[in-house]
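Researcher: Hi, I'm a grad student and pretty new to this. My advisor asked me to get structures for two proteins we've been looking at. I'm not sure of the right format, so I'll just paste the first sequence and hope you can take it from there.
Model: That works fine. Here's the first sequence with its structure tokens right after it:
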Amino acid sequence: MNDNSSRFGKYIQLRFQNSSVKSAKINEYLLEKSRVVHQDEGERNFHIFYCMLAGISAEDKEMYGLLDPDLYRYINGKYGSPEMVNKWSTKYNEVCNAMDMVGFEEQEQVDMKTILAGILSLGNIKFEPQETGILKATEQSNGWLKAAAGQFGVQEEELVKCLICTTSVTRGESIKRNHSQQQAEDARDSIAKVAYGRVFGWIVSKINELLAPNVDLNEEHQEIGMFLISQILCL
């Protein structure tokens, strides 16, 4: 779907013993997390967001808190034609089947999708100053704030605090600095990028666990390493 697209690099190690592949390990580099919150003209976000919105059933969308794709700022109105939506749906089924085959448990997949849905909700939170000058989420954003907090498994108050201020501790004294509107928006987008990167890293680590069960690295073996720059199909 995007054959010339480079979104991350990966180094793959294949370990051989007696001419048979015994295990594999993946290291990922340079994940383009900025794409989560901003896409240049003519580009899209990572495929998994479109796959989820197209492939998850209406009943399950309610469980994950997913709404109309056009509502999400991080999607930026680039959901696609009906033909493209069908491709996203097919790709979603392929991703789910692949995770099943590798050995991801059902609850692990649910947790992953919930966090990804939370990233979309987070992107719709906007801010406005109160009479005191301290920022708060706009009234229109309260629903998105509640959804994102639930999807991330945190309290709304804690999530807001991360967005509108920074607290540092110096010599045992806590110093609180309130954010400007631009700083709050940057904090929101930074959390979205970090959350996406953590999910991606967790997937790679989980795959490595499943590709190398009970491997004794002290045993003599041969190894082939490959460094690839490739597109992200799963995420």
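Researcher: Oh nice, that was easy. Here's the second one.
Model: And its structure:
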Amino acid sequence: MKVARILGIPFSIRGFHETVEELVDRIERGEQTHVVTANPEIVMIAQEHQEFRRIVEQAYVVPDGIGIVYAAKWLGLPIYERVTGIELLEALMQVADQRGWKVYLLGASPEVNRLAAERLAERYAGAKIVGHRDGYFSQDEEAAIVQEIAEHKPELLFAALGAPKQDLWMDRYAANLQVSLMMGVGGSFDVIAGKVKRAPRVWQRLHLEWLYRLLSQPSRWRRQLAIPRFLWKVVRETKKA
């Protein structure tokens, strides 16, 4: 797979539709894939978290965040469009609907997890939601959760445990999960459940979705500090080149 490295992170250079096609092909071939949807915050976490960095370097990383696209432009790298986690989830669910794939949803609060499962089952009736479990579980319960997922052998596992926890968890149990494609989806279940509104289309077209989220959820300001830190590191890399 051709990649473009930004601060050492290997991003796929495929556009959205090409990404969906590639991931579907991998599932059909029975190839296990760990997808990481990486924005500037994820990249900065990987700079400081060695184990997470190892996982990201081995994963299928897509550019979820306009900051990644801008950084690629400054660095002269062939990444031209975002591949957002929630849109990728929806696209894979459409394929699951058509092909009768099995899906497992892990993470978020009990209510959000339940509502997300219900909404996805309604919208993609051909897909099989074979199980769902909220993210409020203890370490002692993990073996049973892994066993439940493995018994169903789903094509798709979506985990909403937050980064880097969701990716660390999936990597830890990858050999036992019997899953074709596993992907961390952060707050996507909250949007699907209707608890959080995604930015209106006009904000998305203007590449200001990050600002809409910040204005809607001011408590995110600490997380958003990763954006200027990321951009500063990219500028420094550009000057070195």
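Researcher: Is there anything I should tell my advisor about the second?
Model: You could mention this: Residues 3-240 form one domain.
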